[in-house]
Amino acid sequence: MNSPTQRLTLSGIMIGMGTVLSFIKVFELPYGGSVTLFSMVPVIFLGLMYGPKWGLLCGAVYGALQGLLGAVTSAAFAGQDTVGVLGVLFLDYIVAFAVLGLAGMFRKIQGKPVTAFALGTLAATTLRFICHFISGVIIWGGYARSTFESVDNALSRAILDRFTGMGLVLVYSAVYNASYMIPETALAVLAAFILASVRPVREKMFQTRT
Q1: Which pLDDT score is estimated for 187?
Q2: What is the phi-psi region of residue 12: left when phi exceeds 0, alpha when psi lies from -120 to 50, beta otherwise?
Q3: Model pLDDT for residues 39-94, shown as the tens digit of each residue
Q4: CA distance 25 to 172
Q5: Do residues 94 and 64 make contact, with C-beta atoms less than 8 angstroms apart?
Q6: Distance of CA 102 to the CA centre of its chain
Q7: Hey, what domains does the chain have and what are their CATH numbers?
Q8: pTM, rounded to two decimals
């Protein structure tokens, strides 16, 4: 699928597939972030198939769509002023999903498609976590204490006793975002292993040249 028309068509289908899969949620956190049924994998697939530049573009488009859906269906922008909304849209959606396309950097691992897909998935989802972590610190940090107080278990009390100020904000962002990104990453890596093990999928993905 090297022609522009074929590339655009497949990319549109995969972005649409990722959007549909994003509605199938295992669980969802109150201020955004959820574990879905492999919703990141289509964008990662495009990055591996067409390379990181095209993957970044597709991921940004997918992220913008997720931002619109987040505004309509969840509290992803709750309590934010105009600057905060723009910051969330940029960091938590456009950039966070665009970096999934960077999985394409691993397509050059010749002869090891399963390794390329798995490593690309792990690297891309780690970059997505970093985007959410930064957003959690600079945009959502004000919710740190109230969130841990509302949970009220042994772990949250221990964190509140030990951390204050910026330390508490850093822990909050790490814990909040890891709570959904770790299982989300595990599911995506599992899907990567399965898909890359299917010969027709593997051949089609890695025969394309950018």
Answers
A1: 93
A2: alpha
A3: 999 999 999 889 899 999 999 999 999 999 887 777 778 788 889 899 999 999 99
A4: 23
A5: yes
A6: 12
A7: 4-207 (1.10.1760.20)
A8: 0.90
